[in-house]
C-alpha cells in the first residue's frame, strides 16, 4: 500500500539541491580541516620552481631538520625558515608541539601561509617588516638559493639579524669555508637529501651542539 508515502512532505527539487550543496560544502570544509596539515603543508603541495633555484628536501630530511629545529628552539621557541619551505611545511605538520614559525621566502606562492609568510629577497637582506625584531628567533634555518659567496654573505646578514644565536645552514659542501667565515658554522655528519638528486653535494652546518652528528 503506497498511500502512506503521501503523508511525507516532499521537498521541492530546488530546496533539495540547496540542501545537498550545503552538506557538500560542510563536508569539504571538514575534509579541509582534517587534511589541512596533510595537504596545504605537505611537501610538494607547492611545486618546485627551478628558475628560482628551488629544490625540496626529501620527506625524511625535512622531518629530521624540523625536529632538530624544535629541539634547538626549546619550549615555546621561535623558528625562522629562510628559503627552506620544505622544513617550514614539516614544522607545520608537527603543529601539536609548542613553538612558532615564520617562513622568509622570495616565492610569493608561499603567501598562502598568511601572516607567517614574509617576503624575502637576499639582495636586500635587512629589508624586513618592522615587527620582525632583531634577535627574536631561537633558531634560524637557512638554505640560500644559490651556491655563491655573495648569496651566502647576504643571507648571513639576515640570519645574524634574526637569530638569538643558533644557526642551522643547509648549503653545498663547496661552501664549507665561506660558511665558517660568514656564520661561524661547522659541517655536521648528517647528509640532507632532496626529493630529486642534485649535482652538488649538499651538507648541513651548525654553530651549536646539535643532534645532527
TrEMBL record:
<keyword id="KW-0808">Transferase</keyword>
<protein>
    <submittedName>
        <fullName>EFMT1 methyltransferase</fullName>
    </submittedName>
</protein>
<dbReference type="GO" id="GO:0016279">
    <property type="term" value="F:protein-lysine N-methyltransferase activity"/>
</dbReference>
<dbReference type="GO" id="GO:0003676">
    <property type="term" value="F:nucleic acid binding"/>
</dbReference>
<keyword id="KW-0963">Cytoplasm</keyword>
<keyword id="KW-0489">Methyltransferase</keyword>
<dbReference type="GO" id="GO:0005737">
    <property type="term" value="C:cytoplasm"/>
</dbReference>
<dbReference type="InterPro" id="IPR002052">
    <property type="entry name" value="DNA_methylase_N6_adenine_CS"/>
</dbReference>
<dbReference type="InterPro" id="IPR041370">
    <property type="entry name" value="Mlase_EEF1AKMT1/ZCCHC4"/>
</dbReference>
<dbReference type="GO" id="GO:0032259">
    <property type="term" value="P:methylation"/>
</dbReference>
<dbReference type="Pfam" id="PF10237">
    <property type="entry name" value="N6-adenineMlase"/>
</dbReference>
<dbReference type="InterPro" id="IPR019369">
    <property type="entry name" value="Efm5/EEF1AKMT1"/>
</dbReference>
<dbReference type="InterPro" id="IPR029063">
    <property type="entry name" value="SAM-dependent_MTases_sf"/>
</dbReference>
Amino acid at each position: 500500500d503506497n498511500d502512506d508515502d503521501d503523508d511525507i512532505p516532499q521537498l521541492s527539487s530546488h530546496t533539495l539541491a540547496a540542501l545537498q550543496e550545503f552538506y557538500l560544502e560542510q563536508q569539504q570544509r571538514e575534509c579541509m580541516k582534517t587534511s589541512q596539515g596533510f595537504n596545504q603543508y605537505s611537501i610538494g603541495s607547492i611545486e618546485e620552481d627551478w628558475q628560482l633555484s628551488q629544490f625540496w628536501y626529501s620527506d625524511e630530511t625535512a622531518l629530521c631538520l624540523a625536529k632538530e629545529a624544535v629541539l634547538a628552539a626549546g619550549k615555546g621557541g621561535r623558528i625562522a625558515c629562510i628559503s627552506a619551505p620544505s622544513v617550514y611545511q614539516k614544522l607545520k605538520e608537527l603543529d601539536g608541539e609548542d613553538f612558532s614559525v615564520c617562513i622568509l621566502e622570495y616565492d610569493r606562492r608561499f603567501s598562502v601561509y598568511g601572516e607567517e609568510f614574509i617576503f624575502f629577497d637576499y639582495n636586500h637582506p635587512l629589508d624586513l617588516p618592522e615587527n620582525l625584531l632583531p634577535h627574536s628567533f631561537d633558531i634560524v634555518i637557512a638554505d640560500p638559493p644559490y651556491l655563491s659567496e655573495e648569496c651566502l654573505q647576504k643571507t648571513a646578514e639576515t640570519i645574524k639579524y634574526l637569530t638569538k644565536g643558533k644557526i642551522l645552514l643547509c648549503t653545498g659542501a663547496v661552501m664549507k669555508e665561506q660558511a665558517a667565515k660568514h656564520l661561524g658554522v661547522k659541517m655536521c655528519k648528517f647528509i640532507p637529501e632532496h626529493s630529486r638528486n642534485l649535482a652538488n653535494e649538499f651538507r648541513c652546518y651548525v654553530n651549536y651542539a646539535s643532534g645532527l652528528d
